[in-house]
């Protein structure tokens, strides 16, 4: 019997496990790094233990510190969540050796599935379909395209797609280096790449004694950087016979290793042939487990705890309706999904408090939370369950569009556009969906009313800040000679936007719009007979304020451009600025070196992703103020390349 459980994880998944524990009457213990001390999950637990430091390697990946925390807090069981130590067999053994209940599979099962190469051999012996392995020497033109994968990998790292044989040796070497850096294991393998394949996975539950059941399947094909962003259950367009065959193969996989608890068997599905192939088994709870819970009416965390306590497997209820989940990330899709960090000044998602039936929000952050550079950039999972797939997609897009997320750039508008894309609604999804639908990257910048609303709200704020002439209309002039100008820029945009407007006794006037009402928090505009109300949030000093504008067409974040530039803000020509906060992991040049335009100068790492900073022009490196290990802030000058004359 589990009485007090420690979750060896953070943020959203810790909150998720705590929720089930509260319902079951199990006390909870949180562990947290210094950066996470103020996140909601820490306060939700009955007890919390600090892991000094911030980097994963000195906090959540320190098995000794986690075990010491369990001892200090009186925990009798440990749930690993996902990521970090969740698939670490040595940690599982250490937990059991300490006399604690390990809420997960046996260490041997983790090891058997920990290597993609060895697990494929094991699955092939169990009768599970697998893809043929290739090498640099054996691959032929007929095998193209190929994909190189890290054996110990995940999250798209150590993965390369190869379309010409001549590129294969170099891509294998690059994948090996990336895998060694990310996982401490440079082993890679090569297999045929299914171009328009779908990622379909089966949820399994095992009792650890050779018994296992399948709890439906999920489609996780919509991905970016080989990482999932939209997941759903059941998988759309999958014939019942194919789904049943997948379930049977997944149960065979779990049975072959006497699997215990919740796990996922992932398959690559080829819609053209209806064949599927084993990819890997995740020996833990998956990020996307909520869609299975909503469709089948099972609490998978509760089932994990039940099996860990020695209970048997449940009867699996039949699928009911359809559920779709999106992963909301602090990242900029328009800038190659660059991670974002900083303060979430506003983070409100409809349904987060359970007030909307059929909507579920599993979040790790709240308004005012700080998103650090040390961990994954996922903010929350937003899930909708409805009677049909079309209804779920439409409602989920609506929920996201009504969310208010300020302070950081997120992928929210991309998700809304993807959910409303006709091909997605029709179920025509594949792992290449985002690349094949560039239109989903168009955001709220296309709304001409958003900058106008921002400019007028700023004018109202300036009126409120006056110390004299409170009764005078905004922008009042005895003799009007020219309109007022408010210049705004969207972070990452190439050009600023100038809004020209007039103010007088009759209120505001803007060409192309009828100004219905204005305040510092809401602006109503009418254009071509259609009225739209914009919610506006202002922060910072008025002369250079940050403006968040929300409307039914999406969110736009703007920054006011001051009329006069502060000389202290100027940077030297040729300066390479840090695109995000992070740490310098590699410096590829030295001061005085000659470089060409586009040559890599250094590599930054933030939120588990690496970003190369390149020379803007041909020239000489005249300034280089960072070295490996340096922590840098967004916008900090990293180096200066002086252009050749």
UniProtKB/TrEMBL annotation:
Domain of life, per UniProt, equals: Bacteria
| Enzyme class of the recorded protein, top EC level | ligase
Q: What InterPro entries has UniProt attached to this entry?
A: ATP-grasp, BC-like_N, Biotin_BS, Biotin_carboxylase_complex, Biotin_carboxylation_dom, Biotin_COase_C, Biotin_lipoyl, CPAse_ATP-bd
Q: Known SMART domains for this protein?
A: Biotin_carb_C
The record places domain Biotin carboxylation at 1-439
Cofactor (UniProt): biotin
* One Gene Ontology molecular-function label: propionyl-CoA carboxylase activity
Q: Which keywords, in A-to-Z order, does the entry hold?
A: ATP-binding, Biotin, Ligase, Nucleotide-binding
Using the record's annotation, list all stretches that form the Lipoyl-binding domain.
Answer: 567-642
The identity of this protein, by name, is Propionyl-CoA carboxylase alpha chain
Q: Which organism is it from?
A: Nocardioides salarius
- Kindly give the PROSITE patterns that the UniProt entry links to this protein: ATP_GRASP, BC, BIOTIN, BIOTINYL_LIPOYL, CPSASE_2
**Pfam families annotated for this entry?**
Biotin_carb_C, Biotin_carb_N, Biotin_lipoyl, CPSase_L_D2
Report the EC code(s) recorded for this entry: 6.4.1.3
Higher taxonomy: Bacteria, Bacillati, Actinomycetota, Actinomycetes, Propionibacteriales
Q: Which CDD domains match?
A: biotinyl_domain
Residue ranges of every copy of the ATP-grasp domain listed in the record: 120-309
């Amino acid at each position: 019997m589990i009485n007090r459980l420690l979750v060896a994880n953070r943020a959203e998944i810790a909150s998720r496990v705590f929720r089930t524990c509260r319902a079951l009457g199990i006390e909870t213990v949180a562990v947290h790094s210094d950066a996470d001390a103020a996140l909601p999950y820490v306060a939700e637990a009955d007890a919390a233990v600090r892991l000094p430091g911030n980097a994963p390697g000195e906090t959540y990946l320190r098995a000794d510190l986690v075990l010491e925390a369990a001892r200090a807090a009186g925990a009798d069981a440990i749930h690993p969540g996902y990521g970090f130590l969740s698939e670490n067999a040595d940690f599982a053994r250490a937990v059991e050796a300490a006399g604690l209940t390990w809420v997960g599979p046996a260490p041997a099962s983790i090891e058997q599935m920990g290597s993609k190469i060895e697990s494929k051999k094991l699955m092939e012996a169990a009768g599970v379909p697998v893809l043929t392995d290739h090498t640099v020497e054996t691959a032929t033109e007929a095998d193209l395209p190929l994909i190189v994968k890290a054996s110990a990998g995940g999250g798209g790292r150590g993965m390369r797609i190869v379309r010409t044989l001549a590129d294969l040796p170099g891509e294998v070497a690059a994948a090996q280096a990336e895998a060694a850096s990310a996982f401490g294991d440079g082993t890679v393998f090569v297999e045929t790449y299914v171009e328009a394949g779908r990622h379909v996975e089966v949820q399994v539950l095992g009792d650890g004694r050779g018994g296992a059941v399948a709890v439906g399947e999920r489609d996780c094909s919509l991905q970016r950087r080989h990482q999932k962003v939209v997941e759903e259950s059941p998988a759309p367009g999958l014939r019942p016979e194919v789904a049943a065959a997948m379930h049977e193969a997944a149960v065979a996989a779990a049975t072959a290793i006497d699997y215990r608890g919740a796990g996922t068997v992932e398959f690559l599905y080829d819609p053209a042939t209806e064949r599927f192939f084993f990819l890997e088994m995740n020996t833990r709870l998956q990020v996307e487990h909520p869609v299975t819970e909503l469709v089948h009416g099972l609490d998978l965390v509760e089932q994990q705890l039940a099996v860990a306590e020695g209970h048997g497997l449940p009867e699996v209820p039949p699928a009911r309706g359809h559920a779709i989940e999106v992963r909301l990330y602090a990242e900029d899709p328009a800038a190659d999904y660059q991670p974002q960090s900083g303060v979430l000044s506003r983070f409100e998602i409809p349904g987060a408090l359970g007030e909307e039936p059929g909507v579920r929000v599993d979040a790790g952050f709240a308004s005012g939370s700080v998103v650090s550079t040390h961990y994954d950039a996922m903010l929350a999972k937003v899930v909708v369950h409805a009677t049909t797939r079309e209804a779920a997609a439409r409602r989920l897009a609506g929920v996201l569009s009504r969310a208010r997320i300020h302070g950081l750039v997120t992928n929210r508008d991309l998700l809304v556009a993807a959910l409303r894309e006709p091909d997605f609604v029709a179920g025509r999804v594949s792992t290449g969906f985002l690349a094949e639908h560039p239109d989903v990257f168009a955001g709220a910048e296309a709304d001409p009313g958003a900058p106008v609303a921002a400019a007028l709200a700023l004018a109202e704020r300036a009126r409120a800040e006056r110390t004299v002439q409170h009764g005078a209309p905004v922008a009042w002039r005895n003799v009007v000679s020219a309109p007022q100008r408010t210049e705004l820029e969207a972070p990452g945009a190439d050009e600023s936007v100038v809004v020209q407007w007039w103010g007088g006794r009759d209120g505001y006037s803007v060409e192309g719009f009828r100004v219905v009402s204005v305040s510092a928090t809401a602006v109503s505009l009418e254009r071509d007979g259609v009225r739209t109300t914009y919610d506006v949030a202002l922060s910072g000093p008025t002369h250079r304020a940050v403006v968040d504008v929300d409307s039914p067409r999406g969110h736009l974040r703007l920054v006011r451009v001051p009329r006069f530039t502060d000389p202290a803000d100027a940077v030297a020509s040729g300066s390479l600025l840090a695109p995000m906060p992070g740490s310098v992991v590699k410096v590829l040049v030295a001061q005085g070196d000659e470089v060409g335009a586009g040559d890599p100068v250094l590599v930054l790492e933030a939120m588990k992703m690496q970003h190369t900073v390149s020379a803007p022009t041909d020239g000489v490196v005249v300034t280089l103020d960072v070295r490996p290990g340096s922590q840098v802030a967004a916008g900090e000058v990293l180096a200066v390349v002086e252009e050749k004359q």
